[in-house]
Amino acid sequence: MDLKEKSSRMNCELLATCSALGYLEGDTYHKEADCLESVKDLIRFLRHEDDTRDIRQQLGAGQIVQNDLLPIIIQHGQDKALFDACIRLMVNLTQPAMLCFGKVPDDPVFRHHFLLVTSHLQAYKEEFAGEAVFGILSETLYTLLQLDWEQRQEEDNLLIERILLLVRNVLHVPADPCEEKKVDDDASIHDRLLWAIHMSGFDDLIKFLASAQSEQQWSMHVLEIISLMFRDQTPEGLVSAGHARSAEEKHRDTLELEALRQKELATKRSRTLQRGTRHSRFGGSYVVEGLKSIGDRDVIYHRNVHHFKNYTHDTGKAVRRVPKRNRQARECKDQRRSALNVRLFLREFCVDFLENCYNRLMYLVKESLIREQTQQHDETYYLWALSFFMAFNRGNGFRADLVSETMSIRAFHYIERNITNYYEMMLTDRKEATSWSRRMHLALKAYQELLLTVNEMDRSQDESIRQSSSVIKSNIFYLMEYREIFLTLLRKYDETRQPHSYLIDLVESTHLFLRMLERFCKGRRSLMVQKVRRRRSRGKKKPSSPETSPEALVETWKIVEEELRASAFQLSESLTENTVPFDATSETPLEDQKTEAMVRVQDALLSRLAPEALGLLRAAREVWPEGDVFGSADVEPEEELELLKQILHANLPRSSPPEPAEEEDEDAAELEEDELESVQISEKEFNFLDFIKRFSNPSVVRPYLHLLKSYSKNTPHTNHCIARMLHRLAVDLKMEAQIFQLSVFNLFNKILSDPAAAAYKELVTFAKFVLNRFFSLAAQNNKAYVELLFWKNVGAVREMTEGYGIDREETKPSWTEVEEEELRNLYEEHRHSEGVPDIVETLLPLLSNSNRTRRHVVMQLVHMGLVENAKALKKPKKGTQIVLWTEEQEEELQMLYEEYKDSDDVLGNLLKKLTAKRSRARVVDKLLSMGLVSERRQLYKKRSRSAHGKSSGKAMKLLFFQTEEELTQGLLDDFGDRDEEEDESEEESEEEKDEAQESETQHVTRRSRSLPSTEERGPDVGSTVYALQQEGLSGPLLWLQNSLYKTAMYRDDDGFSQDVPFVPFGEENADAMENKTFRRLLRKLGLRPPANEQETFWRIPAEISDSQLKSAAAALRPRDEVPKGAEEKKEERKKEKEEGEVSVEHRVQALRAVRLKRQRKRHTSEHTGTRGSFRVCNLSQMTAVQSREKASNKRSRLLDDENEENGIYCRISN
Q: How many helices (H) and strands (E) does the chain have?
């Protein structure tokens, strides 16, 4: 009751508001005093309407637009405020029904309201189809556009936009097919509306907005209006408007009429044959021999014998209803021909638009789309305009300069990307699959028009245009995504989602593309194209669990115990605060997470993260104090140590990860394949015939045959495209057996028996060719008739034509008993031979049959049971599988080392002479373990004396011509980093190249670093860590430790890891990266500084394994006291530094003396006056310095900053 009262009250309020607007007397409208306020009230009412759009329906039923609003703006347009308010109200009332309801409602009640709103919009459109309305709109818009930007107010811009939106909404209203039963060349309501736009001059304003540089903000509105103006038109229809029919059109019409005439004559002949010579009411009864009825008897036919040809068992049965999801997609709408005067006006509009507006407008719209400044799906207007106007330009005397903006590779790429996106959305958004299919069809039309325009450019008389066409074709034929787009679309065609017209455009576009590609290939000897190869790995390897063997556990516990005792069981503050032993987001109750916490402690111990394990244990003790499961509250450190040992050796239950649901298997597999897919791009020589072979697939052939079923309704060009593709498969590829299918033969029978078969000569000839080939094959293969029931791929076609089992015989070659015995004897003879890394490669040249491949031998060995599987014979990697050294190999290595230890390249000679080839790293490690060398630098290449002698003079010359600043900086760097070079003696590269002459003149030598073992760097890292802690860098140390540990967890074990950038986050970490001691720690851990100007951050090298990273992370434990021996080592370094400073002083004095002596020889005595107080050094000191330089094979740096500031110089005393 309340709802009815509210509804009636709302109707009364609306009625009172509408009455307050004014009234129409004859042709004059008298507005009331409250007219403006009433219009604003109606706008407020529309804001609060319900889901059924009741206010909109009531205003439409009251004809408020026809009787009030339009007369107000026509007769009272001088009232600017009232005019603005009326335009606002009409923009709201003319909104499309689809916008009001979101979509076409499925509910019958809402569908009824949707249709009512649409009917009101159609009534509005009919009222707008008058010159008076558009006259006032054109005048107002013209006045506003005359204002400069400085004079134009914000209200003026809003009014311009509202007028454009109003025109767009009116043009968008669909036609009513029940009311408008118009034929071609008759004026519809839309035609009348277009004529009103033309007569009012509004079309000229549209062209001005499209071409004016100052009005580019309205580009999207203008394009929408233009697309709606040409909604019912075709480019071909506008091109031919006002012109006499061409000879080609007359010939096409003649063929169509002839086909219809032949069908009519054939129908008359069949009717004549069906009539008997005399009249008989009794048609007769016949027994059909060989055709069984429901029982065992033959069928009795009670109709005229002439109709028996169409007899089936389904006669009289109810037609089975096709499910909605399996129904063929419906066409959008039919095109109609407008009145001649409208077509002529639109043709002139197109000509002017192409000459003055097209390129600029399309550029602005494209930029807006790329920058995402438009609304959703606005790109469809761009695609329509591209296809429509380029087609019109192609038919109306083609000019390439008029469409140059959209004739580029960028346009091809943009459309191809949209086609791919629309197809993906059509699969994912199934509720809106029809809409996505229409957008995809629009993009395909645009792509087809681009190809047609390129093809038209080839025929141009202008050489530059033909050259541009060649460049575009070379690009689209080179890239794989452009070559294979049609192949992909054909394979993915779905008749339930994509209409028949889409398939026609797809087939015609494919035909055009193949014809252009074939012509392009014929003019060249070879064509190189891009090849994209996608490799998909089988999946990520599961992170390897730490070793749990007794020996490994003992070694792990030894390291953990030492680390905990060294830290005196003290934990850092950050580790204590951030450790949480339970998962608060887990659905498992807190009490049931004790076991999981215990497992986490064990994992930390296995990873040798002692502080984390102890922190977890103490945190778990606070959460679960009952039962002393994690120890009592007053537990001693030794008891904690024993408890951790028990946890490490305990066999704890571990929960397996949950298996994913079966429904999500496919999606998860697809996502995993996308993530693990690696793309490799290369080039290959293009072969057109090989490309056509890819179309020889049932999923490609089936859409062509589906389109062939409507051969009588297809255009001759469409039938030609189908026949040409089938001809390529059947004749060029000799794959006619792929068309041997029962439904295809039924279609061929229909074509051959068609009375108008003369109009389809190409199809008739092809059908006869295929049928002749089939019956020839059936005479040799009696299973050919059974093969008619199935679609066949290439393998099935080959078996059908050449014989069954051919492929299996070829893939599995036969071995005779003699060959098997020979293989067995050779395998037994060489299986235990030493120095044979790959037995299969050894057996291949010894076999009597030289045609055997490695795969054949491996398969036969597995088949004979000589090996378990093919993995046992997997080809070993070079230099990585040999790990163990025999006694003979160790003796050989020692003997070779004694022989070549004095050579310039010791390691290179060893690698060449060793019998069992091994990597450089293996040989170096073995030499160190045998004690033949004490450090790696002893194995580096030495500079040859000849090279040194030749380049020494040049080097000294360069040395003494350096400026004082360069000398100062060089020597400062050398001795400032001397401690680092001594600490990092194990970090130099194993594979440093020998470039002797360049190393004399260059100051920088690139060195790759490898991570030293924990035992080697233990005390050094410990002292450095302690020093950094004293400087207040505990936070960056913890960040470094966590980073190393995380990198180790995600590092692959397959040897294909990459360098990981070490990026500091936060000011504290960034400041630490500037600390010299912190960077020295990074070098000791094996991290690499930026190699060149293209790198910004330090990197964790790919050569460092996950175990090394974990060891490095474990070595960064917090220290509360100075490690043993650290003070002594610090004193030793201090002494060495002092000695180094003394040697620096001597070295500087000697080199400066030589320089001054040479200057004295070149200059006169007046320029050699005293320059201050000099310190004197003798020549023996200089000789000693030079001898030390020759002994150390390091680059020299000159002159310390401190020495330069104090003014220290030296000269040779006379």
A: 56, 10
